[in-house]
Specification:
single chain; 177 residues; Rossmann fold; 6-stranded mixed β-sheet; 4-stranded antiparallel β-sheet; 10 strands; globular; binds inosinic acid; binds magnesium ion
């Protein structure tokens, strides 16, 4: 058990389970983008650890870029997504792979969708390590999902609770009272 601020969390996914999910995703990406030079577009802060791991496993040429968005306060999505750091390169005509740590309500994804539509990308796919199907309210297709998880608040592997927990190499879930 671990404590972050006022909440307790219990072990949920091991590093081995996470790595196996990432290996599978990498296999698919290496197959689907063979011979292309995709742009991996990570969503900060949460996706930094997953982005690093998945990009290390990509065998071809690629570029890496990041945007920063935020909507979460504590353990809840506010629904109001803010762009904190925008795109600093043109994605026109490029194949883009959006890298998310987790897709929850889909609000963040919808916001990025709007940004990318204006960019005139050749195509773009959504890659997320974790997906909460019960919380998802949008219709944007999630092309690559590492793991589907129940609608519980998790931390670790890049995900935080009010800034803490991002460094944990395993995933913990909020302890039920
Ligand atoms: P959405 O906009 O509701 O889909 O939420 C997406 C963002 O909220 C993610 O990129 C995370 O940064 C954050 N988030 C969603 N669920 C969790 C969670 O269970 N733990 C920590 N952060 C989360
Ligand atoms: Mg995030």
């Amino acid at each position: 058990m671990i404590q972050l601020h006022d909440l307790q969390f219990e072990p949920y996914l091991s590093e081995k389970e996470i790595n196996e999910a990432i290996d599978k995703l990498a296999e698919q990406l290496n197959r689907d983008y063979e011979g292309d030079t995709p742009v991996f577009l990570g969503v900060l802060n949460g996706a930094f650890m997953f982005a690093s791991e998945i990009i290390k496993r990509f065998k071809g040429d690629c570029e890496v870029s990041f945007v920063k968005l935020g909507s979460y306060e504590g353990t809840r999505s506010t629904g109001d997504v803010k762009t904190l750091l925008g795109l600093n390169q043109s994605l026109k005509g490029r194949r883009v792979v959006l890298i998310e740590d987790i897709v929850d309500t889909g609000n963040t994804l919808e916001e990025i969708n709007e940004i990318l539509k204006k960019e005139g990308v050749a195509d773009y796919k959504v890659l997320t390590l974790f997906f909460k199907p019960e919380a998802y309210k949008k219709s944007i297709k999630i092309d690559y999902k590492g793991m589907e998880i129940p609608n519980k608040f998790i931390v670790g592997y890049g995900l935080d609770y009010d800034g803490l927990g991002r460094n944990l190499t395993e995933v913990y879930k909020r302890k039920e009272q």
